[in-house]
C-alpha cells in the first residue's frame, strides 16, 4: 500500500515506503484497469512506457490471471534503432513480459522507429487514426524532466497542434532520433499512471509540482493522473 496519497494540481501523488510496495501497487493498478475495461468494452487498450523503471513490473505481469486475448498494446515512444536492438523499448517489454504471454501478435502495436523519426511517426500516426480513447497510459519521468520522448525545450513545445505521433530529431540523451506520442494523444485516455523511482528524480518531480513547464504537465486523463513515487 502507499504510505501517503496527496491531491495536487489535479493529480493524485502516491508516495511509497519501499520498491516492493511500489511495484505491487502498480501491478494491481494495471490489472484493476484491465478488468474494468474488459468488463465494460471487451478490450483493454494499454500504452507502455520504456526505460529502466517498468522492467520488473512487466516481468511480474507474466503470471497475471487475465484474458490476454482482450489486451491491445501500444508504446508511448521508441528510439530510432534496429528492430531487435536491446535498447529499444519494444525489445525490453518483449523480453520481460510480452514474449511470455498469449497476447495476439496483431494486438501489439510496435512503433516502426527503425524507419527513422519522420517515417516512423507518420506510420504510427496512421496506425492510431482509428483508435479512440486509450484505457491506460503508463509513463515515466527522466531526471531532466522528460516523459515519453518529450524533452524540455524540444521543438514539439512550439507546435500549434500535434499529430498522434511526432518525430524527435535532437533528443539530448542518446540516441537523438526518436518517435514519441504527442501530449494530445497521450492525454486521450481514461487513466494515466506515472511510475517514478530513484532519488535522482527528486528535482524533476519538484519542478513538475511547482508548475515550471515540465513536459509531464501537458498530460491529462479523463479520470485524472496518478503518480506513483519511490524516490529513496
Automatic annotation (TrEMBL):
The keyword Hydrolase applies. It comes from the Bacteria. Keywords: Hydrolase. Pathway: Carbohydrate degradation; pentose phosphate pathway; D-ribulose 5-phosphate from D-glucose 6-phosphate (oxidative stage): step 2/3. The keyword Hydrolase applies. GO terms for molecular function: 6-phosphogluconolactonase activity. It catalyses: 6-phospho-D-glucono-1,5-lactone + H2O = 6-phospho-D-gluconate + H(+). Gene3D superfamilies: 3.40.50.1360. Residues 22-223 form the Glucosamine/galactosamine-6-phosphate isomerase domain. Its EC number is 3.1.1.31. One of its GO terms (biological process) is carbohydrate metabolic process. InterPro entries: 6-phosphogluconolactonase_DevB, 6PGL, Glc/Gal-6P_isomerase, NagB/RpiA_transferase-like. Hydrolysis of 6-phosphogluconolactone to 6-phosphogluconate. PANTHER family: 6-PHOSPHOGLUCONOLACTONASE (PTHR11054:SF0). Belongs to the glucosamine/galactosamine-6-phosphate isomerase family. 6-phosphogluconolactonase subfamily. NCBIfam families: pgl. This is 6-phosphogluconolactonase. The lineage of its organism: Bacteria, Pseudomonadati, Pseudomonadota, Gammaproteobacteria, Chromatiales. The gene is pgl.
Amino acid at each position: 500500500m502507499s504510505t501517503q496519497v496527496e491531491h495536487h494540481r489535479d493529480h493524485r501523488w502516491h508516495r511509497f515506503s519501499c520498491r516492493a510496495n511500489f511495484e505491487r501497487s502498480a501491478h494491481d493498478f494495471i490489472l484493476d484497469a484491465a478488468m474494468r475495461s474488459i468488463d465494460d468494452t471487451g478490450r483493454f487498450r494499454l500504452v507502455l512506457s520504456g526505460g529502466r523503471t517498468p522492467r520488473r513490473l512487466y516481468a511480474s505481469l507474466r503470471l497475471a490471471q487475465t484474458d490476454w486475448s482482450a489486451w491491445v498494446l501500444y508504446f508511448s515512444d521508441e528510439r530510432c534503432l534496429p528492430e531487435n536492438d536491446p535498447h529499444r523499448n519494444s525489445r525490453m517489454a518483449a523480453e520481460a513480459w510480452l514474449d511470455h504471454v498469449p497476447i495476439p501478435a496483431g494486438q501489439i502495436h510496435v512503433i516502426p522507429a527503425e524507419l527513422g523519426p519522420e517515417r516512423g511517426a507518420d506510420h504510427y500516426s496512421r496506425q492510431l487514426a482509428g483508435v479512440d480513447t486509450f484505457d491506460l497510459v503508463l509513463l515515466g519521468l527522466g531526471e531532466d524532466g522528460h516523459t515519453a520522448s518529450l524533452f524540455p525545450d524540444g521543438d514539439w513545445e512550439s507546435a500549434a497542434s500535434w499529430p498522434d505521433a511526432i518525430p524527435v530529431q535532437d533528443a539530448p540523451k542518446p540516441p537523438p532520433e526518436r518517435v514519441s506520442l504527442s501530449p494530445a494523444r497521450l492525454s486521450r485516455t481514461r487513466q494515466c499512471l506515472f511510475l517514478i523511482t530513484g532519488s535522482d528524480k527528486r528535482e524533476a518531480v519538484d519542478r513538475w509540482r511547482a508548475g515550471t513547464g515540465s513536459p509531464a504537465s501537458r498530460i491529462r486523463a479523463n479520470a485524472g493522473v496518478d503518480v506513483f513515487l519511490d524516490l529513496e
